[in-house]
Amino acid sequence: xxxxxxxxxxxLRTMRLPAWVKDRxxxxxxxxxxxxxxINTDLSQKLKLPTTKIxxxxxxxxxxxxxxxxxSFRKVPIKFNGVTVxxxxxxxxxxxxxxxxxxxxxxxxxxxxxxYQTGIMEFNSRGRQVTLSAGNEKGTKEVGLKxxxxxxxxxxxxxxxxxxxxxxxxxxxxxxxxxxxxxxGEFEGVLGEPKGLPPHREFDDRIPLINEQHAIHIHxxxxxxxxxxxxxxxxxxxxxxxxxxxxKSPFSSPVLLAKKKDGTWRLL
Length: 268
Prior knowledge:
Elements: H1 3-7, E1 14-21, E2 24-31, E3 38-40, H2 41-47, E4 52-60, E5 66-80, E6 83-92, E7 99-101, H3 103-106, E8 112-115, E9 120-125, E10 128-133, H4 145-153, H5 174-186, H6 188-191, H7 225-241, E11 257-259, E12 265-267
Parallel strand pairs: 2-7, 3-6
Antiparallel strand pairs: 1-2, 3-7, 4-5, 5-6, 8-9, 9-10, 11-12
């Protein structure tokens, strides 16, 4: 399943369509980047869809995360603009869309004409030409409190953007600034950013191993994409400054990314 399908973000190969499942209006994301069809777990429980137990299998998200799927719903009727289609759906904790229709549904339609720019999708169903329209989603829309709470409870991320004008005030005169520069220059070895590894100690620590004991093989822990990017950035900075160096040791140390109060991240 793609990241667009998990988060409900519009992509170059996705289309959001309004539809009805039973008596509830839903948002269907048509995504040819997802292999199967999925429905939000909470929505499937509210609709009380007939459940079919399946052999549990893993669904891999584009960011590397793996989700467990244990339920499916056979031939669920989905109504678009007077046209009803049926699709087999699998339950997943989706955040944005209610239903995702992937390649599993698209390949059963035969020849499909899709215009992502205008949001129009055309195909033949039982000898009849069917046209689905995504409608106009351009521009910003005001969101109510209940909608925000629903997205938040579903695991969505909410960001607040505030623009402020910040003016720098220099309260020190030229003489004070000069004194500060002289002080920093005099103790540069103490106050400057450390570069390179610390000096060798008289005795280096050693980890004794049992004879012929091999290192334990453990798969690395998967971080979210934005955390992975931050870890790689900080590691690259420490490599460049010489604080760390490449190691060929079969042993590794766990990395923990902790968020500080100012919003930055600390690598532990």
